[in-house]
Amino acid sequence: FEMEMAVVEAVNNSIEHGCHNQSGHPITTRMDVSADRITFVISDAGDAVLRLPEMPALDDRLAGPPERGRGIQIMRAVMDEVAYRTDGVSNFLTMVKYLPIVRTDDV
After folding, report:
1. What is the DSSP letter of 79?
2. What is the CA radius of gyration of the chain?
3. Phi/psi of residue 2, nearest 5 degrees
4. Burial tier of 82 (Cβ tally within 10 Å: 0-12, 13-18, 19+)
5. pLDDT in tens, 87-101
6. Residue 29 belongs to what H/E stretch?
7. Whose CA is closest to 93, among 14, 24, 1?
8. Strand 27-33 and strand 37-44: pairing?
9. 22-67 per-position pLDDT tens digit
10. Distance CA 84, CA 41 (A)
11. Does residue 29 contact residue 40 with C-beta atoms inside 8 Å?
12. 48-52 contacts at long range (C-beta below 8 A, 24 or more positions apart)
C-alpha cells in the first residue's frame, strides 16, 4: 500500500505541476523488479522543475500540517531513494524501495 501511495503521489504531481491538469500529455509509469529492489520511474514531457523541494517547516501557529504540498515528503518517507532528472524533453522521477534479502537457509 505504501509504495502504491508514493506512485499515486508522483503521478498526481506530474498531472498537476508538469502538465497543469491538461489532457493530451502522456505520463508513463514503469516498474522494474529485481531480487533486492523495486524501482518505479514516472516520466512526462511537461514542465520541468529545478529540483525537488525540501521538507517545509511547519508553522507552530497552524492547527496541523497543510492539506497540500506533502507529495514529495510522502514519497521520501515511504521509499528508500527518490531522485528527479530532466533531459530537456522529458522529466523522470525515480523511486526505489529496497527489499529485505531472504537467505534460502532461513526459510
Report:
1. S
2. 16
3. -65, -40
4. buried
5. 989 999 999 999 988
6. strand 27-33
7. 14
8. antiparallel
9. 888 899 999 999 999 999 999 999 888 876 766 555 455 555 545 5
10. 10
11. yes
12. 48/18, 48/86, 48/88, 48/91, 49/17, 49/84, 49/86, 49/91, 51/84, 52/82, 52/84
CB-side neighbour CA atoms (13 Å) of 56: 12
* CA separation for the pair 72, 78 (Å, rounded): 10
Residue with cell 530532466: 86
- In angstroms, the CA 19 to CA 105 distance is 49
> Cα–Cα distances in Å, from 76 out to 37, 55, 59, 65, 99?
16, 10, 21, 17, 16
